[in-house]
Structures are given as C-alpha cells and as structure tokens.
Amino acid sequence: MKRLYFLTKNGDSTERVAEDLHREGITDWHFHVISKNEAWLKKHHVHSAAWWHRFDILHSGERGALLGGSIGFVLGMIGALTPTLGDIFGFWFVPLPTLVCGFFGAWVGGLVGLSHENYKIARFHDAIEQGHYLLMVDIRRDQEERVLSMMRREHPEAQASGWDSTWVSPFARGGDRSVYESSDQPGHINAVRGGKTGGSRA
C-alpha cells in the first residue's frame, strides 16, 4: 500500500481530517497520528500510531536478522566442512546456526530499534517536537485520487509532506531529519502524486 504523510498544526484540524477520512472509507487500521500530545489524541478518540510506527523495531530487527543469519550461515558452512561435524551432519548442519543466529540477531536488532526513532518518520522529528501532528494515511491505488481530492478541497491547511510504501525494507536508510518545506499555495497536495515530496529536500 501507499502511505501519504500530512502535517497539521493543531488537534482540531487533525480531528476534522480523521472524520473526513473515515467518511472516505479509511479505517483506523490505515490511519495513524503521531503527536507529542498523546493525551489529546486519546481524549478525542483520534487513532494514535502504534509503537512499531514510532520506533525502529521492525527495521532494526530485519537488519539484525540478516546480519545474524549471514554470520550463522558462514559458521554453519565452516562447521559442515570440518572433518568431525561434516562427517556426522554434512551440510544439514548449516541451517541450525543460520536460524539460531538469525533469531538472535532479530532480537538484538529489535532491542536496538527501541532506542531509535522509526527511520520513516525521522525527517519529521523537528516538526513533531514543535507540536505538529503527523498524519499517516495508508491507501490503495483506487483510493488515492479520492483521498487527495478530499484533502485538497476540505483541508488546504494540511501540509502534504510526501509519500512512501508501507513496506519496511531492511536495506532502506533513514531520511533527512529536516522537515519538508511548506507550501502555502492552494493545491499543493497535487505534488504528492508526482513524487516523494512536494517541494521537498529529502
């Protein structure tokens, strides 16, 4: 799925966007908000982002699994080629250290990720710290035009701040922590459709 990012300056605007997105068929499962004011989100029943949206657990866990699995595979190959283990297990010895090291790497990577911001939202760090609300909207291809048209028509105050996939890639790097440049011109949401950002530096 495609994930659209919007920044709003206050809770009232965020709540109105949430209500309109629900009317467009976007469920809470596909709509997430990150804000410093978690109490406000809960009080007004605006769907807050889950922990895996906030922290780099999945991304770091995937990297840890790849690294650990690779080390385990090499160790398994070395063991399988040694006379003693090789004669007993042969190449069936390879999967065991690969899986063990892979799971251990995923566990360690996940723990590391708990202390890091999700790489997908790192570029919004300053805006969130300044009190902005980050809205993440997950849409299918057939929903894109309808959602963007609604946002352009009903919420020109919402800053379109780029898009990416909901897929978490272990090979992806974190984005620039700077905030996308603001666009105050009507219709700036159109920029989301053409690329990663509208007037962005990322």
Write up what this structure looks like.
There is one protein chain. The protein has 202 residues and is α+β, with helices and mostly antiparallel strands. It has helices at 11-23, 38-43, 51-54, 57-81, 83-89, 95-113, 125-129, 141-154, 190-194; strands spanning 2-8, 31-34, 133-139, 159-165. It has a 4-stranded antiparallel sheet with strand order 2-3-1-4. The chain contains 9 helices and 4 strands. Helix 4 runs antiparallel to helix 6.
Keywords:
single chain, 202 residues, alpha+beta, four-stranded antiparallel β-sheet, 9 helices, 49% helix, elongated, disordered C terminus
Query: Helical stretch count?
Result: 9
Order of H and E elements:
EHEHHHHHHEHEH
Oligomer classification: single chain
- Estimated radius of gyration: 22 Å
Unreliable residue stretches? 175-202
Shape: elongated
Q: Major β-sheet, in short?
A: 4 strands, antiparallel
Residues in β-strands, percent = 5-15%
Could you give the order of strands across the largest sheet? Answer: 2-3-1-4
Can you lay out the helices and strands and say which pair or pack?
Blueprint (H helix, E strand, L loop, with lengths): L1 E7 L2 H13 L7 E4 L3 H6 L7 H4 L2 H25 L1 H7 L5 H19 L11 H5 L3 E7 L1 H14 L4 E7 L24 H5 L8
Antiparallel strand pairs: 1-3, 1-4, 2-3
How do you describe this structure in short?
The protein has helices at 11-23, 38-43, 51-54, 57-81, 83-89, 95-113, 125-129, 141-154, 190-194, and strands at 2-8, 31-34, 133-139, 159-165. The protein has 202 residues and is of the alpha+beta class.
